[in-house]
Specification:
It is a single chain. This protein has 309 residues and is mostly helical. The chain has one domain (2-304). The protein contains 8 helices and 4 strands, in the order ααααββββαααα. Strands 1-4 form a two-stranded antiparallel sheet. A hairpin with a 5-residue loop joins strand 2 (168-169) and strand 3. Helix 4 (127-155) runs antiparallel to helix 5 and helix 4 (127-155) runs parallel beside helix 6. The protein is elongated and about 85 Å long. The relative contact order is 0.15.
């Protein structure tokens, strides 16, 4: 039964990606004319459609997984080898993976001008060059998340869902108060979250690699093709950062509550500050990629200039 449910999840995600591809191909207004302004407009339109389609696909996947436990755990047995609540904790990483895969698939249908055109020159760039500071931010968020998973796992009480209270003593040193506070993201949550972090980061690298390998835009200057390519990379990383950073910020903020309730004031404050910083930073990274090509109008104007053969 567990295998069946996992296959349903896989089929759901695959279907969403197929719908995104269909959306991109359907909304395209045919092949652009063989002139630089038309190619530039088609490229901007395609980039916007890919970003929107990937965002909707990832959101739909997350919503589907959030609603799945309501169906799965209504039966007498537990068909999935995970505890209740783990799917909700890890669904943002599924959203990040679906987002990146949808973007990678959409990269295969960039507009090609009709008629005879000059072969465009591709200035090949590496994944790290295209990723820039956003890739460094995603790598830092992933690393911090893995460290947090280890920290919460080590400090969790037996069972992994709570954290032990700081014991209180009477005058002669006898323990008079103890207990546990939760919910706390120990190993039952931490191991799936760590796997999600690794998979999400790998999916982002894969999508960036696809961006580096796509053919150059025909008829437009190299500077404009490079600007479009950087916009694609920025939006891939922005979507990944939004899901991954949001998930990690939520985990840290949630963990701060039982830590404070259990008397671990220092740990609670550190978890709270880290959650706020990761959440705010991820929001900045995500919002910074929305303008996209508008921020590169200078490079875009060169696309309207005739290109000699």
């Amino acid at each position: 039964m567990a295998g069946v449910v996992l296959l349903v999840l896989l089929a759901f995600a695959t279907g969403l990606i197929a719908l995104v591809v269909l959306l991109v191909m359907t909304l395209r207004s045919g092949r652009p004319e063989a002139n630089p302004p038309a190619v530039a407009r088609a490229a901007r339109r395609h980039e916007a459609l890919m970003s929107l389609g990937a965002a909707l696909a990832s959101l739909a996947a997350v919503i589907g997984i959030v609603l799945l436990p309501d169906i799965v755990w209504t039966s007498e047995f537990q068909p999935l080898p995970v505890a209740p609540g783990v799917l909700q904790y890890t669904c943002p990483f599924v959203g990040a993976v679906v987002f990146c895969l949808a973007r990678a698939v959409g990269e295969q249908w960039w507009p090609r001008p009709s008629g005879t055109v000059r072969t465009a020159v591709l200035a090949r760039r590496s994944v790290t060059e295209l990723g820039g500071w956003r890739l460094a931010a995603l790598a830092a968020t992933t690393s911090l998340g893995l460290l947090a998973v280890v920290g919460y796992g080590v400090t969790a009480a037996p069972g992994g869902r709570t954290v032990a209270h700081v014991p209180t003593y009477d005058a002669d040193g006898t323990v008079i108060g103890t207990g546990e506070a939760g919910p706390y993201p120990g190993w039952p949550f931490g191991i799936p979250i760590a796997a999600g972090l690794v998979l999400a980061f790998g999916a982002a690298l894969l999508a960036l690699w696809v961006v580096t390998r796509r053919p150059a835009l025909a008829l437009v200057p190299r500077e404009h093709d490079d600007a479009v390519r950087r916009t694609s990379a920025a939006r891939v990383l922005a979507g990944s950062q939004a899901w991954v950073g949001g998930a990690m910020a939520l985990m840290m903020l949630v963990a701060a509550v039982p830590l404070n309730g259990a008397g671990h004031t220092g740990g609670a404050l550190a978890s709270l500050v880290a959650g706020v910083v990761v959440g705010a930073g991820s929001l900045v990274v995500a919002v910074s990629a929305i303008p996209g090509l508008r921020a590169r109008e200078a490079a875009g104007r060169k696309a309207a200039e005739p290109v000699s053969a």
